[in-house]
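Lab meeting, item 3. Inverse folding demo.
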């Protein structure tokens, strides 16, 4: 990593904090899946909207990492993450459109039908 102790320390702390956040929210998600309640604490519409929004925000962070990284391996990982996140965000939008929670965005005319 870094030869500088202060840089190494801040990077290690950041990594530890990120792991703690992942563990915390993962445990919440696992507990909720095992919960026997028949009522969700939030509406399906709200949960789907926020899940899609989080993946869309993550895409911007990965794009920033891609454009600022000088390592091609990191760029490749960011690209793969963006593609996976686009699929999930798109699926969230499809579910919301299907359920009438948002409107389908305007599309270009189908030239073959015209």
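The presenter then showed the designed sequence:
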């Amino acid at each position: 990593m870094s030869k500088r102790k202060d840089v190494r320390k801040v990077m290690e702390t950041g990594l530890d904090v990120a792991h703690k956040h992942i563990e915390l929210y993962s445990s919440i998600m696992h507990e909720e899946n095992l919960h026997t309640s028949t009522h969700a604490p939030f509406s399906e519409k709200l949960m789907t909207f926020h899940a899609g929004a989080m993946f869309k925000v993550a895409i911007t962070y990965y794009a920033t990492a891609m454009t600022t990284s000088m390592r091609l391996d990191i760029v490749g990982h960011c690209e793969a993450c963006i593609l996976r996140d686009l699929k999930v965000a798109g699926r969230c939008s499809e579910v919301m459109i299907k359920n009438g929670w948002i409107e389908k965005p305007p599309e270009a005319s189908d030239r073959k039908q015209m």
